[in-house]
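name: query_chain
kind: protein
chains: 1
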Amino acid sequence: MEEGKAVPQSHVQELYGERPKPGFGAKLKAHFKKWWWLHLIVFIAVHATETATTHLEQEVQIVDLEAFTDYNARLWANSSVDLVVKGKTKLHEMKFPTVTVDFRKRIKMRGFEGIPGFNVTGFSIKRIPEPDGANMIGTVYIPNPTVLTLTMGNVTFNNFVDDEFIGTSLLSDLVLRPGNNTVTMRSRVNQTLVVEKVKETYKNGMLPIEIRSNSSIYNGQHLEYFEKALQGSRQHVVLNVGAALAALTGGGSAG
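structure:
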């Protein structure tokens, strides 16, 4: 050691068996090395809550048909449904290592509430049935207040007046998208019975009809999880059948 030259304090400590105390930077580096996973989770939680929106498109296998059917029934009948999403996934953010995270989230989904806005907005009666047997054709308004798009296939309904069956209706290739849906309805109606009802009971021509769901078929297969849910729901409409019958000779339509 050269005479008169200052010796660093850290070197003196090493000579006497003492280790220098780590500075703030070293402490910070050691902290992140040990607790990086906690900072990653906090960062992702804050970042995801404030800014992240993820769109997923994935085919999901229904492992419990009974539970899924019950979910659809509740969704169709109620204004909202609580849904619990839980599982395990891997998260990777920036340069942090990939971590496995268990999650459980309860969300409230908007339901159909029985579709109170369901309505037949217009229809016409055919004197001669069309090739598929339809003798009444109209349009149906179906609001969808949810965020769900439902592909329901060919949906059929049974129609009743005073609990007496008067015919069937078909909504072909029905897809209910969020918002307002207007679809074509093709019906096979017992016109003789309808005329009798108008003459004997509903002389003002306003016929109250109860619509009961019958089936939902997609690619030849019955969608039981929709059918059972819909069968518990009944829609009621009042149709101006008197005006439609009067319009037969002039080819008009009624609402």
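note: Helices lie at 9-15, 24-50, 65-77, 191-200, 224-231, 241-246.
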